[in-house]
Amino acid sequence: MPVIEDIAAFADDLTAIRRDLHEHPELGFQEVRTSAIVAEKLKEWGIEVTTGIGKTGVVGVLKGSRPGKTIGLRADMDALPIHETTNLPWASKTPGVMHACGHDGHTTMLLGAARYLAANPDFAGTAVFIFQPAEEGLGGARAMIADGLFDRFPCDEIYGMHNNPMDEPDRVKIRKGPAMAGSDFFDITINGRGSHGARPEDSKDPIVIATTLVQQIQSIVARNIPPVKPAVVSVTKIQGGDAYNVVPETVKLGGTIRFFDTEVGELISERIRALCAGAAMAYDVDVHVDIRNTFDVLVNDGPLADAVLKAAAPVVGDDMYGYNDELVMGSEDFADMLRVVPGAYCTVGHSGGVPVHNPAYTLDDAILPVGASIYANLITARGEAA
Ligand code: NI
Known about the structure:
Elements: H1 5-9, H2 11-23, H3 32-44, E1 48-53, E2 57-63, E3 66-76, H4 103-119, E4 124-132, H5 140-146, H6 149-152, E5 157-164, E6 172-174, E7 177-180, E8 182-191, E9 195-196, H7 206-224, E10 231-239, E11 246-247, E12 250-259, H8 262-283, E13 286-295, E14 298-300, H9 302-316, E15 321-323, H10 334-338, E16 343-349, H11 367-382
Parallel strand pairs: 3-4, 3-5, 5-16, 6-15
Antiparallel strand pairs: 1-2, 2-4, 6-16, 7-14, 8-12, 8-13, 9-11, 10-12
Bound molecules: nickel (II) ion.
């Protein structure tokens, strides 16, 4: 089934933009080049642009020819601290930084929709194009909201999408209600006492305490959370020690908590704090705990999830869209925007077969006109709705 014809006609331009962004990836809140390109393109197409929202965020506003609702569309712009191994001609030119989650593609799809709508303004309402920085755990959505995003550009509905290289090309999926997990990040610092490795009696060994704590933390989901409530605690960092014959002073642990129920998240945090306090007392050391919420639970509005599939149907064709039964334990900071404005977030499949956040990940440029068409259809359909 076809993408919008006018968008198909400039698909090569979209590929060129996407590959240029891919070659020049920028980490969260450092998207200076990317946001300058976004702003320049939007202006070129006659769209009113505001820059510097949430540091490097950009917002474009385009009024349709008739009054109607204001619909926000959001793309993320940041890359990851990963060293790309694809060897593609347009592979990252910045060592250690890579668009390994396809945010270059998301940015380009939204630019494609903006270009089409600017040339075809015969729609009701207003389109707000939101280009967000720092999605990868740095709080870009919250930064834009704190900077007055929805006060300055009030939206009736908002939509977003993510590419999925592990799904069939062009398959569009969405889940009604809670869809992606809420997430906390935590850091634990065990300040013990160092000693010669041969004289452990002089130490308060933080390595032994750290390994014990890691095991205890794994009991939280197993023994404190009802099995019917999804939850994850992963200790993903353990850092300490430099020499074979030295017991170190300090060990640091870090990791993430995932949940769909705020109370579950709070209970896990409480248990981590209690276990750390217990270890501090038992081993006579100082244990410092820092737990911070990074993502809200992503909740899709039911009727607006229907609207996304309706907008996708003519683009991807019958049997290529539907509801996703599975909860995703991954997180997405569009969730924070959905707390303020109702909306929905879908995934779109493309070929590649290497998961996101992998150094060999690739985005298939064939997805660009597909995503741009779905976005454009959302504006023309939803601006009109009563
Ligand atoms: Ni992503």
